[in-house]
Specification:
Pfam families: rve_3. It comes from Frigidibacter albus. This is Transposase. The chain has 168 residues and is mainly alpha-helical. 42% of the residues lie in helices and 5% in strands. The chain has one domain: Nucleotidyltransferase, domain 5, CATH 3.30.420.10. Helix 2 links the parallel strand 1 and strand 2. The chain is globular and about 40 Å long.
């Protein structure tokens, strides 16, 4: 999750099909709710007909980053590198069940024991809990039951790219 920095699912297997990804995403949505958008690379399991059909059925927007531009999904690339360096490259698995057990423990540690600077040095799970509480808590001055946005949209033009101006 690029907001909470949580690892929401890690599925060790010998291969993963688009149908399997769709099943895992459906299960994840049942646990965590529907995302506004999914962003991914162009892996074959993520561009499969099964995923395209799943997106149409669930009405979830899927954004594919440009081929050869992994930094368009930089948080995920950073996470993948961390998992590879700390876990995959350092662990010898006896079998798939062993891999699943160890990965579940690593994900739990990642989500619940490691503070992240991008989250104000909270753990991903702690930040998610705080975020959920903030969303659910009604505003003191608002009598309505509608959820309020946590962050306001940026004013028009704030995110416009501008060329740097040389000074000196």
């Amino acid at each position: 999750d690029d907001v909470t920095r949580e690892c929401l699912a890690a599925i060790p297997d010998t291969s993963i099909s688009g149908r399997r990804v769709a099943r895992e995403l459906t299960a994840l949505i049942e646990r965590r709710g529907k995302p506004g958008m999914i962003v991914s690379d162009n892996g074959t399991e993520l561009t499969s007909n099964a995923i395209l059909k799943w997106c149409a059925e669930t009405k979830i927007e899927w954004h594919y980053i440009a081929p050869g531009k992994p930094m368009q999904n930089g948080f995920v690339e950073s996470f993948n590198g961390r998992m590879r360096d700390e876990f995959l490259n350092e662990t010898l698995f006896r079998n798939l069940a062993h891999a699943r057990d160890l990965l579940a423990a690593w994900v739990t540690d990642y989500n619940t024991a490691r503070p992240h600077s991008a989250l104000g040095y909270q753990t991903p799970a702690g930040f998610a809990l705080h975020l959920t509480t903030a969303i659910a808590r009604p505003a003191a001055r608002d009598e309505s039951s509608a959820r309020r946005a946590i962050a306001q949209p940026a004013p028009k033009g704030v995110n416009d790219q501008r060329a740097p101006v040389a000074a000196g």
